[in-house]
Design goal:
4-stranded mixed β-sheet, elongated, 5-stranded mixed β-sheet, alpha/beta, 2 helices
């Protein structure tokens, strides 16, 4: 039986007896991907007016696995930033410019409009993006402390 991908983080789940001489290096890849999912950071330009789908690839580093996402660039139209339709929470900073809206959403799901200059703790159940807490940089707020604690 071949390796399969885990449901949420797309980590390699090795089959019994597989990868006899490479198990250690494969396990280290998984550990690095877990680090991305818990503490990873991505700065991503979403400039323009086209929707942006964050990469989502089994067994390797990708954009949507990162915990903290900072979106940058000047928007010239309303856009959606799309993540996989699976359960996950993110810390997101909408650091874009331009008089347009950025909606953060799961694929084929309901999104959340993120105010420019604000930071959010959000989670998705795979179909809807929910705001746990937001702040404009002047204070963290008790919701963020509890969410990160």
């Amino acid at each position: 039986m071949a390796s399969t991908a885990s449901t949420r983080l797309r980590l390699e789940l090795q089959a019994d007896g597989e990868n006899d001489s490479t198990w250690g290096s494969k396990a280290n890849v998984v550990f690095n991907l877990i680090e991305e999912a818990t503490d990873g950071y991505l700065a991503k330009s979403v400039a323009g007016s086209s929707n942006v789908t964050l990469t989502s690839t089994n067994f390797v580093s990708d954009e949507s696995r990162q915990r903290v996402l900072e979106f940058t660039g000047t928007l010239s139209g309303n856009i959606d930033v799309i993540v996989p339709a699976t359960e996950k929470f993110y810390i997101v900073f909408n650091n874009t410019a331009g008089a347009y809206a950025l909606t953060f959403k799961p694929a084929s799901g309901t999104g959340l409009v993120l105010t420019q200059g604000s930071k959010y703790v959000v989670y998705t159940n795979g179909s809807t993006m929910f705001e746990v807490s937001s702040f404009d940089g002047s204070s963290i707020g008790i919701g963020l402390i509890l969410a990160l604690g």
